[in-house]
Amino acid sequence: MYLSRVEIDSKNRAKTKDLTHLGAYHNWVEQSFPEEVTANQRNRHLWRIDQLAGKRYLLILSEKKPDVTALERYGVSETAMVRSYDHLLDNIQEGQILQFRLTANPSYRAKTAGAKQGRVVPHITVAQQRLWLADRAEKSGFQLIKQTVVGESDDKTTLAFDIVSRDWPVLHRKAGHGPRLSRVTFEGLLRVSDVAEFKQTLTQGIGREKAFGMGLMTVIPEA
């Protein structure tokens, strides 16, 4: 597995004018693997957009290395980095505490009269979105760390993660408009409870809309 990153050239509007919806980013990701395109392969690549210190980055997790030139299509020249992800995966241990970052689409399937599957509905409130992640933790191979807020009336215990951004990016733009997706970024601490399941989570993602920049969780050892 490989984890790749490139700074998006946000200051060059002429260069990035096509990046007005998630479908365009999806196409950028797919075109970064020209051999797969030529072979008419549709391998899933997890990706997300990160905003750090005033800069925006495209992050991709893939089984094969992307083409660096294609990866920099909308990126700042010479900012593309491709690193092996196998070392991190091979060194995950049960009980290990890690810092995590996850961009996801917190949603659920609502029952609809006369429909077999129902329709997908986004969770709207911060409380709902936090609960969505908490409900998926154990079956995803990790536990969310609990913390005690000292000084409150009952020394309140909460989970040690935050929602650091919430927005509604356009999925596909048509005539100036288009459907939107709920996008939420979580950051916090977790403890690995099942190594095999957790590796599956890191490589396969969490939740819906993975093709459109959702579901990628990355981790680093706690400082």
Q: Care to describe what's here?
A:
A hairpin with an 8-residue loop joins strand 9 and strand 10. It is globular, with a radius of gyration of 19 Å. The chain contains 6 helices and 13 strands. The protein starts with a strand and ends with a strand. With 223 residues, the protein is of the alpha+beta class. The strands form 4 sheets. Strands 5, 8, 11, 12 and 13 form a 5-stranded antiparallel sheet that branches.
How do you describe this structure in short?
By secondary structure, the chain is α+β, with helices and mostly antiparallel strands. It has six helices and 13 strands. The chain has helices spanning 22-31, 34-38, 68-71, 86-90, 126-137, 195-204, and strands at 2-7, 46-52, 55-62, 81-84, 97-104, 107-110, 119-122, 142-144, 146-148, 157-159, 161-167, 183-192, 217-221.
Uncertain spans, ≥5 residues at pLDDT below 50?
none
Q: Class by helix and strand content? A: alpha+beta
Secondary structure tally, helices: 6
Q: Compute the separation of the termini in Å.
A: 24 Å
Name the helicity range: 10-25%
The arrangement of helices and strands along the chain is EHHEEHEHEEEHEEEEEHE
How many β-strands, per DSSP? 13
Shape descriptor:
globular
Task: Estimate the strand proportion.
Answer: 25-35%
- Cα gyration radius (Å): 19 Å
pLDDT averaged over residues: 92
How would a crystallographer describe the biggest sheet?
Answer: 5 strands, antiparallel
